[in-house]
Amino acid sequence: MYRPHLRLFLLLLLSAAAFPLSGCLFRTRPLDRHFSDRPLKTASQEQLIEYINAQAARIQSMQATVDIDASTGDVKNGRITDYKEIRGYVLARKPAMLRMKGLLPLVRNTAFDMVSDGQDFKLWIPPRNKFVMGSNSADNYQPDKRLENMRPQYIYDALLIPEIGKDEIAVLENGYEVVLDSKRHRVEQPDYELAVIRQGPQGWYLSRKIQFSRTDLLPHRQSIYDQQGNVATDARYQDYKEYAGTTFPALIEIERPRENYDITLSMVKLEINKALADDQFTLEQPPGAEVVRLDGSNPSAAKSPAGQQ
Predict the structure, then answer these.
(1) How many H-runs (helices) and E-runs (strands) does the chain carry?
(2) Are 212 and 195 spatial neighbours (Cβ–Cβ below 8 Å)?
(3) N or C end of the chain: smaller count of CB under 10 Å?
């Protein structure tokens, strides 16, 4: 039986085969993606969750001397202000206590002092003679402010990665992270990513995502989300070291995208599970300070005369 369409197909196939590979029908180009050749470790979802929960249970308090580098952005004026070489002190105690104090370079006077009990926070800024108070649960973001947008609770949530609770759902994803190879070239490397989902007032939402390096199976990044799906805090962990038998990152970078600031903490000295008293988390209003009260109903500053509570 004569089949003209079959004959035409065979002629086209033979004609294509006659062209060299470098002809117009075929073209080769370099691979755009470059991958790391470092040896990788494997772990199950259960093992990654067990590590997070065991580490959270192991660390109940910490006291650290740190070097602080920080930067704040002024979107309106298109400027970034850097704060370098600030010596700082961080105290943290579970379930939610944190105090962080920074000293100005050279003169070593207090640049800021802030404390949180998990519910409320206080922030003392001596160079501006301001004493800020507010609730951690209120949206107190001030676009025209810089240091006033820092919150000790944000530092606490990034510093001590919390356990994955029984009321949360963790989903494992095999992803990729960008790292530097031995020649300082940017390459892709497989990683593990735990997406932690929890239920809020408006339903289930992505609460945070923890990324594990496949070279050491340690958390290298934690992204914390708000209930609208925006990244509220982006924390990166590097240079893990042993502190009295506990592995902890010696370098932590904390970024707050909405407030447009980031803080990098470099551990100078770290003590894990040292007893910390309640009065170490007490911050009194200095005499003569300008008091700024923040609340959810009125996120703008409400100034009170000095000395009034």
Answers:
(1) 3, 15
(2) no
(3) N
Cα–Cα distances in angstroms (integers) from residue 130 to residues 76, 116, 126, 154, 286, in the given order: 23, 17, 6, 20, 9
Q: Which two tokens stand for residue 97?
A: 């206590």
Q: What is the DSSP string of 167-183?
A: TSEEEEEEEEEEEE-TT
Q: Which residues pair with 180 in a beta bridge?
A: 186
* Mean pLDDT across the chain: 84
| Integer Cα distance of 167 and 38 in angstroms | 37
Q: How many of the other CB atoms lie within 10 Å of CB of 132? A: 27
Comparing C-alpha atoms, which of 162, 155, 154 is closest to residue 198? 162
194 close to 48: Cβ distance less than 8 angstroms:
yes
Write down the pTM of the prediction. Answer: 0.80
| Whole-number Å distance between alpha carbons of 89 and 101 | 5
Q: What is the pLDDT of residue 297?
A: 41
Structure tokens at 302: 């409400």
Cβ distance 232 to 208 under 8 Å?
no
Share of the chain above pLDDT 70, in %: 76
